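Why should sequence recovery work at all? Because a backbone constrains its sequence more than one might expect. Tight turns favour small or flexible residues, buried strands favour hydrophobic ones, and helices have their own preferences. The token representation captures these environments compactly. In the example below, the structure is given first.
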């Protein structure tokens, strides 16, 4: 996608295949809609009295309006003016982009970002507009024998109509949104690829390609022997059930030094840790067969880290970020984990495996221990960890767990800004008792009650050396059923968090 700004003051004279203008349910037209309405002698107000009420996420296409140069004017409903928020703006941009995709147009102009709303700058709105267009034009056909070229969206150019005073800020937002769109698309495609293609080796090669494309990213991919040399017995215990060799991916992003003078005490890097189970059968504690195909999505935490790194490098953000991805399959053979087995983690703590389907925490715990060597300013792990989190929060919010209020608040704020929200869950020590084992330092599950919480409690035992937060994305990383596919979440949240750290 190609993004640009347009500062024309004569909106009705702008030539484009599709022009988006916003209208509210209470009969209020946005400034752009009002200009167009006056140019076409009240055509917009006329349809609002009859067929278009301006409800949020609704659209109406008006063609060949007299006095208007655009081939199509797309009325986009914004809902009640008093309720118009940054989230509503993003939804409106998505609705417009969807119209453009279905109309098969190659270029379009949106005036929606120019409409002010509480808690949102023009940069925020421009970024969200670009990201919405990238989402609407995403198309997966990597594993089709004969991809249909006509099924691919034709929209290639989107311009935002803004004032001259807002132009520079809008251009910054578009740059950020384009980078975000590429990162999200990368994460979605990795998630959508089948497990026989997107293996641990494939993820390692994907990371190496990023390192070759961007000089700011250095990548090291460790094999099984190197992982064993680190003492990652918990991680390796999961990989033993598969013929696919495990990989431990270490990515180090170093952006340009910030313009301001360097401080005496340089903060450590933010470390992102992504769960990379490229297929999860559940092991001996095997999953039900009906939706087991969706377990190719169990590496979406890893995909989100890779996608975030692509966006970081595209934007050339200052500072350092480290990405850690433990990746393997969870399958069944004669060497696979058994209920009752005891394994030793890199930290030296021992773990009794009561359920082999609680494997994500077994690979993440060693990566969290490894993260200590970077003396991080903060560590965030991202994982499709528990079905319990899906039960608790559905597909709207990712589950956020942290004992650090400042870190948790900054993640929640980033999620709201990006429209990729999280909800803070409890992490009291009282839940830790559920992980008691008679035969090891801890068990890998704490029973059915508060399953998402006890999973986070397990991880917290390996993250005491630094500020830490855990994102359970089991409900938000993909959608099932007829609309089955990866969402690319929480790349928007992670990138916004990092942008806020550099602000």
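From this structural description, the recovered sequence reads:
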């Amino acid at each position: 996608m190609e993004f640009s700004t347009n500062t024309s003051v004569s909106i009705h004279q702008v030539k484009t295949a599709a022009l988006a203008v916003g209208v509210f349910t209470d009969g209020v037209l946005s400034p752009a809609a009002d200009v167009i309405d006056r140019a076409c002698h009240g055509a917009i107000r006329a349809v609002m009295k009859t067929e278009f009420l301006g409800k949020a996420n609704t659209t109406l296409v008006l063609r060949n309006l007299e006095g208007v140069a655009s081939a199509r004017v797309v009325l986009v409903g914004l809902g009640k003016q008093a309720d118009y928020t940054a989230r509503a703006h993003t939804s409106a941009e998505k609705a417009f982009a969807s119209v453009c995709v279905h109309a098969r147009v190659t270029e379009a102009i949106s005036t929606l970002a120019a409409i002010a709303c509480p808690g949102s700058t023009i940069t925020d709105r421009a970024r969200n507009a670009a990201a919405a267009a990238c989402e609407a034009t995403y198309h997966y056909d990597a594993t089709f024998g004969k991809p249909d070229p006509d099924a691919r969206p034709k929209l290639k150019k989107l311009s935002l109509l803004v004032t001259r005073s807002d132009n520079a800020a809008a251009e910054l937002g578009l740059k950020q949104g384009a980078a975000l769109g590429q990162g999200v698309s990368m994460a979605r495609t990795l998630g959508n690829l089948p497990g026989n293609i997107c293996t641990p080796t494939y993820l390692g090669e994907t990371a190496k390609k990023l390192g070759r494309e961007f000089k700011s990213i250095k990548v090291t991919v460790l094999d099984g022997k190197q992982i064993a040399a680190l003492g990652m017995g918990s991680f390796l215990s999961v990989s033993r059930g598969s013929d696919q060799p495990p990989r431990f991916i270490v990515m180090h992003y170093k952006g340009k030094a910030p313009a301001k003078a360097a401080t005496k005490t340089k903060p450590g890097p933010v470390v992102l840790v992504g769960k990379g189970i490229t297929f999860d059968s559940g092991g001996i504690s095997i999953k039900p067969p009906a939706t087991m195909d969706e377990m190719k999505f169990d590496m979406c935490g890893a995909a989100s880290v890779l996608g975030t790194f692509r966006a970081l490098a595209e934007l050339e953000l200052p500072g350092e970020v480290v990405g850690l991805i433990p990746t393997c399959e969870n399958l069944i053979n004669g060497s696979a984990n058994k209920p009752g087995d005891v394994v030793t983690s890199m930290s030296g703590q021992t773990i009794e495996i009561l359920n082999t389907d609680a494997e994500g925490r077994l690979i993440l715990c060693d990566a969290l221990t490894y993260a200590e060597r970077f003396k991080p300013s903060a560590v965030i792990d991202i994982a499709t960890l528990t079905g319990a989190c899906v039960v608790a929060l559905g597909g709207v919010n990712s589950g956020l767990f942290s004992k650090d209020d400042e870190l948790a608040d900054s993640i929640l704020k980033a999620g709201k800004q990006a429209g990729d929200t999280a909800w803070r869950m409890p992490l009291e020590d009282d839940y830790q008792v559920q992980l008691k084992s008679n035969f090891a330092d801890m068990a890998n599950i704490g029973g059915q009650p508060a399953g998402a919480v006890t999973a986070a409690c397990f991880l917290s035992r390996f993250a005491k050396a630094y500020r830490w937060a855990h994102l359970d994305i089991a409900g938000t990383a993909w959608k099932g059923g007829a609309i089955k596919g990866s969402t690319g979440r929480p790349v928007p949240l992670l990138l916004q968090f990092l942008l806020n750290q550099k602000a």
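A few observations help interpret the result. The chain has two domains: 2-161, 183-502.
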